[in-house]
Amino acid sequence: MCKPFLFLSNNPMLEEKYRKNKHIAVAFLPAADFRDVIAQAGKYVEEGYHLMTHPLASNLKPMQCPYKSILLSSVREAFAKERDLEMIRLSLEKVDALTKGMTSPKWNEKTLLDFQTIDLSVVDSAVQSSLFRQMVENPYLTV
């Protein structure tokens, strides 16, 4: 049986932490940038997945943090597919507006590790919420 949840992420720290999770698969996108991860989420939604976290969760802007992680579900539907796609479209527009004419900074290794930790803490808080834990433990249960 396929895992009911999927992380899309370019964050190596998230990939390391969740790769052996029995309920959450990881699609690790090491070459992807912040925007690419959001765009990839749109492709998964088109294929039938559902957003479980907002594409722009946290207060970090695309040029502030190079890492992005989005949680999807193959069995749980928080909103209709059209709403998920609209959230992705609007998120991509926001990213484009915030990054227009900008180039990505060249971060040092320590800063990149800090950004990985920040991104991981954002999604860990979603995974650790009691409602989400109930869904992970029994993804087919109506909560």
Q: What do you see in this structure?
A:
This protein is an alpha+beta fold and 143 residues long. It has one domain (5-137). 47% of the residues lie in helices and 12% in strands. It is built from 5 helices and 4 strands. It has helices at residues 12-18, 34-46, 81-99, 109-128, 130-137, and strands at residues 5-9, 24-28, 50-51, 69-73. A 4-stranded mixed β-sheet has the order 2-1-4-3, with helices on both faces. Strand 1 (5-9), helix 1 (12-18) and strand 2 (24-28) form a beta-alpha-beta unit. Helix 2 runs antiparallel to helix 3. The mean pLDDT is 88.
Topology overview:
Layout: E1 5-9, H1 12-18, E2 24-28, H2 34-46, E3 50-51, E4 69-73, H3 81-99, H4 109-128, H5 130-137
Parallel strand pairs: 1-2
Antiparallel strand pairs: 1-4, 3-4
Helix pairs in contact: 2-3
How much is the radius of gyration in Å?
A: 15 Å
Helix content: 40-55%
Low-confidence stretches: none
Strand order of the largest sheet: 2-1-4-3
Number of strands: 4
Mean pLDDT: 88
Name the overall outline.
Answer: globular
Number of helices: 5
Q: First CA to last CA: what distance?
A: 21 Å
Main β sheet profile: 4 strands, mixed
Share of β-strand residues: 5-15%
Helix and strand succession? EHEHEEHHH
Question: Structural class per helix/strand content?
Answer: alpha+beta
Number of domains: 1
